[in-house]
User: Fold this.
Amino acid sequence: MHKKSLRLAAGLCAAGLLLAGCGPVSGDSGAEKIRLMVWSPSEDQSKDSGQWLQTCCENFAALHPEWDITFVYGVSDEASAAGAVAQDPEASADVFMYANDTLTIMTDANALAKFGGIYAEELQATNSETLLDSLTLDGNIYGVPFTTNTWYMYYDKSVFTEEDVKSLDTMLEKGVVRTLCWKKAWSASPS
Assistant:
């Protein structure tokens, strides 16, 4: 199977959908041997955090005894995955997390597989249109949503009414708006 098809299959593994790519080589047990390179942030692989990635991969392999899967783990966070994958799609991971704002970088590099058929139908049935839009380009779905990009707005209730906060334009006309610079997920400073 082509590497891109393998990526598609392995991506479904991360989402809990039951699909995997297969190579033509069979082992002694009759199971087809597969090597999947999987990248995730280091915290997803650490013992202190419960080794989420390894657990997901082991559970997937247990569900599919027809494949003898060797998982090769690498570290890459969502922000840097696109750059590494786009540089050399064939040498990069088969499964990785990426920030949805890097979708065009990776599609331009021909580094992602399109989801279709029953897998696209499952993604459409289990995710909001807004969430899927962030992973869709030219009508094709290129990922499995893992988390949403949630934005928060804080405001002073003494300045804005309940009606005011229904419109950002109204809030901008009525009050002073400040932004927060999120230098780290656990700390913020006004800017």
